[in-house]
Amino acid sequence: MPKHEEKTNVMRVLDSKKVKYTSHCYIDTPTTNGEEVAKILGQNPADVFKTLVTISKSGTNYVFVIPVAKELDLKKAAKAAGEKNIEMLKSKELLPLTGYVHGGCSPIGMKKPFKTFIDKSAAEREVIIFSAGKIGYQVELTLPELAKVIDYSLEDLTA
């Protein structure tokens, strides 16, 4: 690991559960755009996913993990969660709720577990890559390895 790379809490969680993963660092690049990050890392953008946190009318929070080049379909998200309506969490509410900042949010290691949904396209990928919980760091792993750390369901989530 290069000197400027560090272990994030996500990596520590993965290590503690003996999960096989590969870490990627793009700390020297000022971008948080997922498609740009994929290009910088030399990865297929279809393998790179973003983590989005939502809130329902009932006040329940949900986590959605979708390809970086796609947009979350809020109607499909609400249907997957069994809610009538769902909206994106306000950026200022993300850190207090999850412990993560916008651009560095990971489905692993949030302050408390939330019901998590991953876009069904992930099942077609050998691996998925997503934030390691800190801007500039990503982790790459298979869905079966991810299942050792978090509970999730695969759903049709994008437009």
UniProtKB/TrEMBL annotation:
<keyword id="KW-0648">Protein biosynthesis</keyword>
<protein>
    <recommendedName>
        <fullName>Cys-tRNA(Pro)/Cys-tRNA(Cys) deacylase</fullName>
        <ecNumber>4.2.-.-</ecNumber>
    </recommendedName>
</protein>
<dbReference type="InterPro" id="IPR004369">
    <property type="entry name" value="Prolyl-tRNA_editing_YbaK/EbsC"/>
</dbReference>
<dbReference type="Pfam" id="PF04073">
    <property type="entry name" value="tRNA_edit"/>
</dbReference>
<feature type="domain" description="YbaK/aminoacyl-tRNA synthetase-associated">
    <location>
        <begin position="33"/>
        <end position="148"/>
    </location>
</feature>
<keyword id="KW-0456">Lyase</keyword>
<dbReference type="InterPro" id="IPR036754">
    <property type="entry name" value="YbaK/aa-tRNA-synt-asso_dom_sf"/>
</dbReference>
<dbReference type="InterPro" id="IPR007214">
    <property type="entry name" value="YbaK/aa-tRNA-synth-assoc-dom"/>
</dbReference>
<comment type="similarity">
    <text>Belongs to the prolyl-tRNA editing family. YbaK/EbsC subfamily.</text>
</comment>
